[in-house]
Amino acid sequence: MIRFEIGIVDTRNVLKAILDAYGYDFKDYALTSLKRRIELFVANEGLRDIDTLISRLQQGKDYFERFLQSITPETTEMFRDPSLWRNLRDHILPDITKGTTRPKIWLAGFDSGEQLYSLAIILKEMNLLTEVQLYASYISDFTLEKIKNGTADIKQLEVNEANYSRLEGKGSFSDYYKTANGTVTLDNQLIQGVNFVKQTPAFDQGPGGVKMVLFRNQTIYFNQLLTDRSVNAMYNALVPGGYLVLGIKESLENTNSNNKFTVVNESEQIYKKKTL
């Protein structure tokens, strides 16, 4: 594959074309990371110039959806950072399911399915899968189809097995998938009750009255403005005392919402919305 490099001006032209055609505003994403992903997409598509990319994006909704799937960072691993998932299972999930009402949990990041299935497996093993309302954001229709089909990367199977073992799951990870013809398919019955939310980069859609938000490994791709806006959206979605779960490389320290949360677990970057 020939390395294809584009300039900052070309990158901004692509983003403007997307905004004009579809209303998706990526200007507050970290430009260097986004530029690399656009370059990779252009190379994989065998395109010769940015004008051709812009033309195809403007003329084809399916092409745009595939482009979105390509430039959105994927999770890749199930049960990534097993100590976090153990903490959710042993402490956070029992707390938010104490009451008589069905709690809402929102996977607000653009997950490619791995986090959703990881959470669903944990809830099933806790006999809580039908006791919560799961909401999952997605940005691309192609990604949504992949999630609903249970499509998983066979190259990640060994890592997923190891993470589940470190999680100390109740059963065997093989209980939750099948292999055939060199492919891995997760048990999509696990996600039958999930409410999927089509999201834009502005994070202007989402449920309210949420008791836990998972927003892991997202803000590393944002500039400060988008980080503040997205965290504020999570804050508004959460009930007082609700939990916000970030990635281990992220924190609220430099955001304008820092004083609205208390730290529950600093090593795992779990926060709790302050009560008034």
The overall pLDDT, averaged over residues, is 91
End-to-end Cα distance, whole Å, is 56 Å
The helix content is: 40-55%
Tally the structural domains. Answer: 2
Q: Strand fraction band?
A: 15-25%
Overall SS class: alpha/beta
pLDDT < 50 stretches: none
Shape: globular
Instruction: Sketch the topology as an H/E string, one letter per element.
Output: HHHHHEHEHEHEEEEHEEE
Largest pleated sheet: 7 strands, mixed
By DSSP (H or I, 4+ residues per run), the number of helices equals 9
Report the top-level CATH class of the largest domain. Answer: Alpha Beta
Brief descriptors of the model:
globular, 276 residues, 41% helix, alpha/beta, 10 strands
Give a concise summary.
By secondary structure, the protein is α/β, with parallel strands linked by helices. 41% of the residues lie in helices and 17% in strands. It is built from 9 helices and 10 strands.
Q: Describe it for me?
A:
This protein is α/β, with parallel strands linked by helices and 276 residues long. It folds into two domains: 8-71, no CATH class; 82-273, Rossmann fold. Helices cover 41% and strands 17% of the residues. The protein has helices at residues 8-22, 31-45, 50-59, 61-71, 82-96, 114-125, 141-149, 157-167, 224-237, and strands at residues 104-107, 133-138, 151-152, 177-180, 183-186, 195-198, 210-214, 238-245, 261-265, 270-273. It has a seven-stranded mixed β-sheet with strand order 6-2-1-7-8-10-9. It has a three-stranded antiparallel β-sheet with strand order 3-5-4. Strand 7, helix 9 and strand 8 (238-245) form a beta-alpha-beta unit. Helix 5 (82-96) crosses helix 8 (157-167). The model has no long low-confidence stretch (mean pLDDT 91).
